[in-house]
Each structure stands twice: as structure tokens, then as C-alpha cells.
Amino acid sequence: MISSFPFEIADGLYVLGNKHFFTFLAIGETHALIELGVSATAPLVVTQMAVLGIEPEKVGYLVVPHAHFDHLGGLPYYQAFFPQARVVCSDRARKTMSNPRVLEQFFKEDDVTSAWLEETGKGRRIYSWLPGAALEAEMIVGDGDVLALGQNNTLKFIAASGHSPCSLAVYLPERETLLVSDSLGFFLGPEENFPLFFYNYDTYLETILRLSRVGAVIVAAAHELIFTEEDATGCFNVAEEAARKLYRYIYAFQGNREELMAELYHRYYHNGLRVYSPQNIKACVELLVRRVKDSGQASTG
């Protein structure tokens, strides 16, 4: 379900950015931007909002579902363009965003990805973060918290900590739409998934199950794919099965760790993941291997 950008997926809910990095615009008496992508997509999003006739002063919230570089990279640009908007995130995300040393690493990776986007005509490379600066959050939300935008549009936050301990999913009940961020992993295709249990494998599976029970008719990842109708149910099964298969494969692998990581890197580094640097994906694979090996137990699934 990808159209030319921007496009509307439900009444008063638009998808901006590009297929690699979605930013969602929820319309109300006060508008909210959800998922802030990387710095290179921020100017594109602002241009798309102008095409839609959005008044900048009506943007009241900038929602960071979790504090990884590809979900907050556009934040400094948006803060400058929408100075009245409040940054919304979990308390753990706030702590990460307040750490300049972490942000320095984030924005180094943001620059690599932004350069790729500019080279391929999919964004504009900008430098919006000042070294040493922290990113402030004005509104802390957690599981079950609700943010009413007006005009029958509400954001309900759901703890989704399997990918990252700071992660939140965002449910729009009036639209029956669930924004899962990276909680279901990275979809390389409708039936192909790169699991992202960076924090904890068991919690990752629990998160997938919990989100599947929301009953959304539209499920939107932060990258590449948006699922509707039967696919909105099936995507949870795809994500769960991919995680279980990967866990079993890593646990049973007989070679050394370097061979395993090289094999997994070559297995997954294609399609949408090419927007990230090889070093980034190698680090992701290493983290997944560590999570399985450190658990010391076979998957029960």
C-alpha cells in the first residue's frame, strides 16, 4: 500500500517522506508528526506538508516512537521549523536524547544515510544537529497514555520494548490504525522480515503478540511497507516466524561467530536495508547474535 508521496491512509492521517523513512501526519485541531526519520527527509516532509496546505503553526507535537537515529534524525530541523511543537517520547527515550555522546554517534550514521539519500535523489543532506547539544523532550508518555488532537483524532501509546526499551507504538483508535515503528522488525518484502530483537528476544515476541491483539485494520511500519485488510493480521505472523527462525538458526549454528555474522549480513543486506551503511547492518547482526548467545537457551517456538 504505497502511493506517491504524500498520500492518505485513513481519514486525517497522511504518510510523508519516502518509502525508506515514513513520517506520519495526524490531523486535528492540533497536528502531530509521528516518526521523524533522518535529517535528509525532513525538508522533503515540510515541502509535502505545504503541498497539502498544512499551516505550520498548527503542528503541535513531534512524536519520537523510539530513540534511534533513523527515527529522530529530522528532529532538529523540525524543532527549528515548528518552534511551537512539543517533543513527545517515552522517559527512556528522553534520557537517550539528552546524551550528547550518544547523539554524536547517531548523527554520524544519520549523515551516511542522508548522503546516500541525496545521491539517489531521495532527500537533501543537511546539518541540523549542533555537536554537544542535547535534544529536549517536553512531553513524556507511557503505556496507555492518550493524546487528543481534536477533530476525532486520538493517539494512544502502547509500550513496545522488544526492539528497544524506549519503544512505543502509536494507535489511532478512530482510524483503527497502528503505527508499529520497528516493533515488528524490518520488512524486506511482504513475506520477508529482518528481526530486530535488539533489546530482548522474549520481550520482542511478547510485543508482537500484544500488538497483534489491538485489532488494527491498518498496520504501518516506519519503513517500506504498510499493511491493510488481511495483510494487517498476517504481518504479525510473518514477524513472529522470522524472529523464531532466526533465533533457532543462530542458536544451532556450528561455525564460529565471525562466520555466522558474515552469513547473516549477506542474507539480509539487500532491498530496503541498503539505505543503511554496511557497518550499521553488521553491528545490527552482531547485536542479534549476542542476544541469542547470551540467552543460553533454545527457542521454545
Automatic annotation (TrEMBL):
It comes from the Bacteria. InterPro entries: Metallo-B-lactamas, NDM-1-like, RibonucZ/Hydroxyglut_hydro. It holds the Pfam family Lactamase_B. SMART domains: Lactamase_B (SM00849). SUPFAM superfamilies: Metallo-hydrolase/oxidoreductase. Residues 19-223 form the Metallo-beta-lactamase domain. This is Metallo-beta-lactamase superfamily protein.
